[in-house]
Amino acid sequence: xxxxxxxxxxxxxxxxxxxxxxxxxxxxxxxxxxxxxxxxxxxxxxxxxxxxxxxxxxxxxxxxxxxxxxxxxxxxxxxxxxxxxxxxxxxxxxxxxxxxxxxxxxxxxxxxxxxxxxxxxxxxxxxxxxxxxxxxxxxxxxxxxxxxxxxxxxxxxxxxxxxxxxxxxxxxxxxxxxxxxxxxxxxxxxxxxxxxxxxxxxxxxxxxxxxxxxxxxxxxxxxxxxxxxxxxxxxxxxxxxxxxxxxxxxxxxxxxxxxxxxxxxxxxxxxxxxxxxxxxxxxxxxxxxxxxxxxxxxxxxxxxxxxxxxxxxxxxxxxxxxxxxxxxxxxxxxxxxxxxxxxxxxxxxxxxxxxxxxxxxxxxxxxxxxxxxxxxxxxxxxxxxxxxxxxxxxxxxxxxxxxxxxxxxxxxxxxxxxxxxxxxxxxxxxxxxxxxxxxxxxxxxxxxxxxxxxxxxxxxxxxxxxxxxxxxxxxxxxxxxxxxxxxxxxxxxxxxxxxxxxxxxxxxxxxxxxxxxxxxxxxxxxxxxxxxxxxxxxxxxxxxxxxxxxxxxxxxxxxxxxxxxxxxxxxxxxxxxxxxxxxxxxxxxxxxxxxxxxxxxxxxxxxxxxxxxxxxxxxxxxxxxxxxxxxxxxxxxxxxxxxxxxxxxxxxxxxxxxxxxxxxxxxxxxxxxxxxxxxxxxxxxxxxxxxxxxxxxxxxxxxxxxxxxxxxxxxxxxxxxxxxxxxxxxxxxxxxxxxxxxxxxxxxxxxxxxxxxxxxxxxxxxxxxxxxxxxxxxxxxxxxxxxxxxxxxxxxxxxxxxxxxxxxxxxxxxxxxxxxxxxxxxxxxxxxxxxxxxxxxxxxxxxxxxxxxxxxxxxxxxxxxxxxxxxxxxxxxxxxxxxxxxxxxxxxxxxxxxxxxxxxxxxxxxxxxxxxxxxxxxxxxxxxxxxxxxxxxxxxxxxxxxxxxxxxxxx
Length: 955
Known about the structure:
Layout: H1 2-20, H2 28-33, E1 55-56, E2 63-67, E3 86-87, E4 89-91, E5 107-112, H3 119-122, E6 124-134, E7 137-142, E8 146-152, E9 156-163, E10 167-174, E11 180-190, E12 193-201, E13 207-215, E14 220-226, E15 238-241, E16 244-252, E17 256-265, H4 269-279, H5 285-300, E18 303-306, H6 310-323, E19 328-329, E20 336-338, E21 344-346, E22 353-354, E23 356-357, H7 358-361, H8 365-372, H9 374-391, E24 397-399, E25 402-403, H10 412-421, H11 429-440, H12 447-453, H13 464-484, H14 488-497, E26 505-506, E27 511-512, E28 515-516, E29 519-520, E30 528-529, H15 538-541, H16 549-556, H17 559-571, E31 577-578, E32 587-588, E33 591-592, H18 611-624, H19 641-651, E34 653-654, E35 664-665, E36 672-676, E37 682-685, H20 691-695, H21 697-703, E38 723-725, E39 730-731, E40 735-740, E41 747-754, E42 764-765, E43 770-772, E44 776-785, E45 788-789, E46 793-799, E47 805-808, E48 840-843, E49 847-868, E50 880-885, E51 892-897, E52 909-928, E53 946-954
Helix pairs in contact: 6-19, 9-10, 10-11, 10-13, 11-13, 13-14
């Protein structure tokens, strides 16, 4: 009850605050145009929304916002969380709703009295009752009796500080804020102007940002904290180092104000100065706020809804606002930008942007932009193409002109294909196709195996199921681009690849299922969250075939069976198994609205003529998972994707298959919504709007008619690869194997050879179990049906080097079993990519096992291999002890081994710990001691470390 009471007080104070700062009454006509006043920037700042409340303008370079988190914690990814009570400062760059922490550049903090550069001293508490946020404006009365007000232009942050007591006012500039400072510089130009350079490393590994800071009154340096070679003096005009904080001070009277302008640039000091001069040469704070709100009204006015419920107005316009907070302008006013090659370039004929969370945003945010922001869509794509030219491939998850390679797929091709399908101009279609083809033909991230086998196996790459499915969709997008640009052979090739989902669809369980060494991974639980899926489980990926929905329905057994499977997903128990995944939230059965892979699923009922079920679940999500409260988002905002789902679904449309012209539809949510297009036309949507208009909303809005979908060339359907069925990857003596096709009519052909032999026997028709006895066996196999042949798959098997057995006293995490106890003795060594499943993992416990050599024999050496990936909580054991025994009862120490690898070393590495001896034994005991609880320096502080062990070798 006490917790509920505290929460209730927070909510009451929040809404009291909202009412207190409600704008003056407006006429009905003006209210339709002043849509920015509906925006509540606090939505998503609590719970797991990861949004921030500060001041920004649509797609602006600057996001000027308070930072209440500096520790990189997951719920502090944006720098702010509504549950916090301390503000450390106001920085100029923030990420909206991501699951990784970065940004927080150029942090300023006002204080009174003697200056301190210790964040424990200069930070201060605050109360939400004294906090205001609106589109383009933020203010807070800090508990140190200073009022901070913030606003912004696209490239300039504007601060107004009111000091309610007389004394020494300080503006703290701390460059060691949030991410790791690689190098900082501060140049003092005069008593009112400084220039700042900050090069940092976090999610973006090499980020450059320059700033020009202008004060409205002269200030002087009162303190410096710097690690330069020579001690810094207060009279110096240049400071540099990887530790750099400075206090700029002046005496103030009670109620006196100090204004500060901060212009950003990715290119240099000159660029920051140009940006300042062009966007904010003066000091009128109120006018800047008005201009920011006018920019928001212009963008938010692209969709006008008629709705009596104030909370629904707030939710809708805040959702639309969140979709417009990124991607961010990343070039100076003269068009200069820092490219993926870290060189300076000029954007000719387009605006260069950054922050592309494409795994999230290709699903709804970018389709929304194609509807209401065609010009920016072309600019986004031109940015992709510039990054392709400078960095060698299209962006995956680009941040500050760095490729983070976070998430999977090459979903920039989805954005490009969707734009081409809708006839959006302003970029080179041929260049886009060639860039897409290039990205799909690389040999990294599992693509080599995907091209060779038609799917990715656990043995090839982690997140194998998700990557296979998302690559297949992206390949379909490339095929559509090939067709549009006249590349017939490429169209057929990528349409073949787009069917690779069939190679991971298990017709028995009716689930997308991981494969290991050519066979189905067992045991299999569709609820299990593990390293075979990206932030999800099989339920959340088994319906991801947007490029071939009819083919997917047929694979499930037709309309009735497919509907039943969807029903089963929505009605199943919501508990998941396996790894705890913080992203999997907003569960309805196994549907997870808090993460992106589920977002299209409610609309799949439309494809089996059950639109009423689509409407039921879409309405439920709109009503229950989006609220006008700080924790009003059911999951991460993810750079506008969570909100874009709401915007589109409330209009009654959703893009299940970006790259197709048609939309999926449902009953519009509001009394009326008017969508205004860039060409001056508009379309009105109401709950009675016809389905054909909703599905063809682009063409109806543009021309008032429905475009007949283009007929696509035919393509040849693939024969799915068969599976091999064996008890394990290693065997003693010999082992029987069998095969199974995806259809009863499949004929399967195989051959077996030793991988060391150059002779390859001919393929044979499979009729009965095949005996494998080669020491290093390669089993090759394929299916044939109606004269067509599947890809040929190779499975590898190893005869055990001995007949040893093992008894493990510890209990491994079932996600990290490596196939069972025998994996530690099978002679197969794991690689640094532990996510492929070759390592056994033990959390919060020591590892202990006894190997039985089956008889007393000479023992010359004992070794065990371990892995360290500190970032993933996997840390080498502090020490390893070896013991030997003749009878399995009495053990003698045989070695106590330590190592010199630092737990702080974040490089993924292997370490074999061994001892030599010359004795006889039958039993060998291995005991490895766990690192223990993760310390404060680790991002997972308080969690328990893992030991990862693979091969135990006894000679």
